[in-house]
User: What shape does this take?
Amino acid sequence: MKGTTYKRCKCPARYNAAGKRLACAKKHGSWSYVIDVPLSEAGRRTLGRQQVTRGGFATEDSAEAEKRLAIQLLEIPDADDDAGRVQIAQMIREAYRRYRQLPTYDEVRRRFAAGLSLVRHQTTGEWLDEWLTGKRGVARTTYRSYEGHVRLHLGPHLGEIPLEKLRRAHIQAAYEKIMAESADHPRPVGPATIHRIHATLRKALNDAVRERRLTDNPALHVELPKVRKPKPVAWTRPTDTRPKVVVWTPVQTGAFLDYATDDRLYAYYYLLVFRGPRRGEGIGLRWPNLDLEARTFEIEKQIVQIGWETEETEPKSDSEGTVALDSLTVAVLKAHRRLQEQERAAWGEAWVDSGYVFTTELGEPLHPDYVSRHFVRLVRRANQLRLGDRGQAVTDVQQTLGLIPSGVYGRDTRDAVRAYQRAQAAA
Assistant: This one.
């Protein structure tokens, strides 16, 4: 294995009779060296050309001496071990970047023979940044979650600790501090968020173990705060305190669908109620994936929200497959198709043929946030009774207020509701 030393200065280049560039004879400038890492033909095709360079030496002798030390390190792997030589070359570059000097030959040979990582004294923050860089291939939503956890929590509280010295106690103390510091915030970090942050750290440290940066994962032994998952409750008495997670009864669900019958997204909410696709899976449904004659549809894509931007991605594994449709759902979807054709005709050339089943009036894909906000508006309007309204909702209100249930929202019921609201506001 050979390398080359050369001098750098601002003087004009000089060449000998053979065309070789000559070093400047003046005593200024600096010396550098470059080593071409020898790889097999297959290694060059897969790993590319690999070089080790270093400059800033005051004399040619010092550059030569450093070059010989670097060559000794590069010769530690066997001659046919392309991956090993590239690993040593990366270690040399990292050592120059971090410490401005080469590691010792004995230490590198020992760690290489033991299969340990050649990166020494790396901080936890540096490893997390390196780990994030290697996660560009994951889903954008997953990467955004990883990046937020590292930037907002793990980096500030664990970043300065050397990776090899990271212990369970450090992680435990960091989580306690994260929760304490956010206690007065509008959205404090609770146990559920700590569990998600910990999942990111555990994954990063598992990968560090896999790359032999660590011998074991200290995050595996951390005791996390208990998460009390709220149980879904059917809330049928509006005078009680609202539970954290509320589900509708069949009667309430039917009342909502009855109210939303004339809404242009009625078919979307109907499909979610009776066939259960997730929000993004319903938005991402395309007409080619919907067979109304065979009464089936396939979930192949979903539209997810990343910040405010949207992206079409693969659905979760438990959603893939064919879903059967009943005759009523087919009828609702056929009516929706007719509505979409009317909108297409009304907008003419301005209409966008996106291919999605559920779209805006212009044919463009729906934004997930719009669908949620539109749903909330529908629910609020459905809960606002007006004079002359009839139905179970009116009866429920009358029974709650101790009135004789008639099922008709008249003036007496309206006055009782207003009196109750005034009493609640004064309490």
